[in-house]
Specification:
Layout: H1 2-8, E1 19-22, H2 25-29, E2 39-43, E3 50-53
Parallel strand pairs: 1-2
Antiparallel strand pairs: 2-3
Length: 68
């Protein structure tokens, strides 16, 4: 999934941060196993919080998605 998004944004001048959004935690439960590592999740029912899926950066682009 990350590769597809990287390919889609080829030529983008900004570093990419991958965020998946859900309306509720219950809605997220069905997709947890499909969420990419090194990405973020935002849930509308808890808008002040983010869930970070592994990786060393939080809300920052990784070197492999920085513009060249």
């Amino acid at each position: 999934r990350r590769k597809e998004l990287k390919d889609l944004f080829t030529g983008c001048k900004a570093g990419l941060v991958f965020v998946t959004a859900f309306e509720t935690r219950r809605a997220m439960q069905s997709f947890v196993s499909q969420i990419a590592w090194e990405s973020e999740v935002w849930i509308a029912e808890a808008p002040d919080h983010m869930i970070h899926f592994n990786g060393e950066r939080f809300l920052g682009p990784y070197p492999d998605v920085m513009p060249k």
